[in-house]
Amino acid sequence: MRKPSWTTVAPFAALVALAATWGRHPGTLTVILVATLLAGAVLAAVHHAEVVAHRVGEPFGSLVLAIAVTIIEVALILTLMSSGGDKASTLARDTVFAAVMITLNGIVGVSLLLGALRYETVRFNAEGSGGALATVATLATLCLVLPTFTVSEPGPEYTGGQLAFAAVCSLTLYGTFVITQTMRHRDFFLPVHDDGRVRRDDDHADPPDARTALGSLALLLVSLVAVVGLAKVESPAIEEGVRAAGLPLSFVGVIIALVVLLPETLAAGKAARRKRVQTSLNLAYGSAMASIGLTIPVLAVASIWVDTPLKLGLGSTHSVLLVITLVVSVLTVVPGRATRLQGVVHLVLAAAYLFLAASP
């Protein structure tokens, strides 16, 4: 008999840990073990979502993966918001902005640097990447920048009507992009040869059979239950750890984003090493889009029941970082090719964000 893989074992191990720790105050060693199992459950959930996505095909496959990741992100945010009171009112903003900065600078920078170190110059499709970047820029401005400047509500908040408008616009943009990427203009998002021609040899392998897909669907559900439950168990320890390290509470958002985006980071780096930087950029910009375009609408609906203000507007420091990130991203994407210099520039911006998040 074939031994079960870690993606099969991890969800059930996390579920057992959830049953053993629910309603209790775990010690330090238990907290570390639970955090490890939580990360394993996140990785397993994304893996099984990819299997299901491969089976159902596009555009539904992209939606399955994006919805799974969004459930994980929203669950972590809401769990911490529900226990954090007014101090957690900016947690959604901090998490979404952290996801944007990590994807646009961290994942893109790592991908470009790894690809350029092996192939000197990496090439990608500027049309598709440019459209994706424009969508991310619009979503980030609408959901994270404008709330700082509206005057109908005091503070960096939207009114109920403004939040509903932003949520509808976010869903519209995300849905339009999915249709564009997977149906209407799929060629724009395929890898290209050194001469700029679209590579037709990068099609996926044959989809899994129905039995495998159903098994992954069941394991995906188990993983999501475990992630949501373990997030609740870990939330006090995460906040206490941040305070003990002398970090601002907003750094919790960075931790959530790092956990959620770990699978995409690993997948993007692997693709770049195989001369598929376009795939890496698709993962980076797609993750940023889903983090804003799906998470914000869900949080807008959840804010009806969660008795915590939803402050989305960025401060001046983060606004400057977002602007320079978007400018640099445009200069990276437009030529359709990049060297290790562009990778290092993006990684420096990612490092600047992390440093300022820890020491504002």
UniProtKB/TrEMBL annotation:
Compartments reported by the entry: Membrane
Keyword Transmembrane: yes
Domain of life: Bacteria
Record-linked InterPro entries: Alkaline_pH_Ca-Antiporter, NaCa_Exmemb
Keywords per UniProt: Membrane, Transmembrane, Transmembrane helix
Membrane-traversing stretches: 29-48, 60-84, 96-117, 129-149, 161-180, 213-233, 245-262, 283-306, 312-334, 341-358
Any single GO CC term annotated in Swiss-Prot or TrEMBL for this entry: plasma membrane
Residue ranges of every copy of the Sodium/calcium exchanger membrane region domain listed in the record: 28-182, 216-356
Membrane topology term: Multi-pass membrane protein
Major location category of this protein: membrane
GO molecular function: potassium:proton antiporter activity; sodium:proton antiporter activity
Pfam families in the record: Na_Ca_ex
PANTHER family, sorted: SODIUM-POTASSIUM/PROTON ANTIPORTER CHAA, SODIUM-POTASSIUM_PROTON ANTIPORTER CHAA
Protein name, UniProt field: Putative ionic transporter y4hA
Organism in which the protein naturally occurs: Nostocoides jenkinsii Ben 74
Top-level taxonomy: Bacteria, Bacillati, Actinomycetota, Actinomycetes, Micrococcales
